[in-house]
Amino acid sequence: MTDHGPGGHQPGPTAAGEDRWLLVAVAGMLSFVAMLDMNIVNVALADIADGLHVSAATAQWAVLGYQLPVVALLLPAGRWLDEVGTRSAVLAATAGFALCSVLAAAAPWMAWLIAARLAQGAFGAVLFVLMPVLAIRSVRPPKRARAMSVPATLGPLGAVTGPAVGGLLLDHLGWHSVFLVKVPVCVLALVVTRRALPPDGGLRRPGRRSAGDALPVAAGVAALLLALTLASGRPAWLLLACAAVPPLWWWARGPGGRPVTGVLRVPGLLRAHGAVLALAAGFAAAHYVVALRLQRDDGVSATATGLTVLAFPLAMGLAGPPGGRLADRYGARPVAVAGAALTAIGLLLLVPWDGAWSPPDVAWRLALAGLGMGLNGGPTQALVMGTAPPDRLATAGSTVQLARSLGFTLGPALATAAWGLTGAPRAGPALAATAACLAVPLLALPGHRAARP
Predict the structure, then answer these.
(1) According to CATH, what is the number of the domain 266-453?
(2) pLDDT in tens, 194-215
């Protein structure tokens, strides 16, 4: 049987009678490195500016050059990946991602670095969409939530550990190393994928119509991302988000947007996407506010702050695998709801924070929220992918990743605005907790015809 793509009929573990956990591990590793790249370069911007003799504002494009195409191309990538071979797409995207890492590390001037990062962002968008599809296709249906918990947990872990990993590399090996660190993981993923997946129908270059559909959504999402990113310094930049409405409205009404809107019309899926966005925003806002407040207001050292904030991702990593197993046994929805509720409780306990709290007082509350995020990630992803039409799995994966990416960007921006407008230190934690609380009813209410994954 021929592989028609991530969403099509293809040979898999169900037919072979075995689960390919090695491919699930590949999905987790690539999710980790793709998300790691969202933040790891931040700590190296000053060194990049000095090394390439540019201003700090120009060096910022080493980060934006990756983030913008990742978020802007998620939806077009999802539609394209529904029509091509899984193996070919994984190999091409991973090889391109690794090659761009090498080119970025070897950049002799800033224009070269920006071009490499823009291309890497395009490959990163493909990886973000492919990884949940690869995980769900690598195991039999009774174990899908367990498999989905691997990329759903390791992806956010890559985001929060990026600055720590980047700082360590920067201190010992220089700014070039923050780009090269991902290459060995990509090489290992290429070897495993090449051996474990059978040949498929290959890749198909996007046609002119696909490229035309990609332009408006890329322009709209890029405007929205820029508005959220720049608004943390100047809230007036939020007005730029208005520029995102016309191209996205035009795209949603055309042939390019119909597969996406069709997925979101499936009962329950729009609410599930809202829950993903809300939890990501709460997670990112809490991570940002806690680190800032510990150092700026409480006078805690950078090392103690890092160890305190580390409680969240460590707890999340510990809870991810059990969350998948529980979802496979009891159903994805109840476990996803329980995880969201636990995250909300942990973040609510942070709201009364006053100057008398020690770092351990903050850490155990973050750990509680992290346990909830770990329990929630895989089951929510499995809920979405199990409810989506079988021929639109990549499209569903792209919409979930877009919701999560926007949440990660939206959280710190809103927390900064709330803190600045009210002048109250509790405004940021309150906003993070509110976002997490919103996710609970969004997940708890099933669609009229929602199927259990």
Answers:
(1) 1.20.1250.20
(2) 888 777 766 666 666 666 667 7
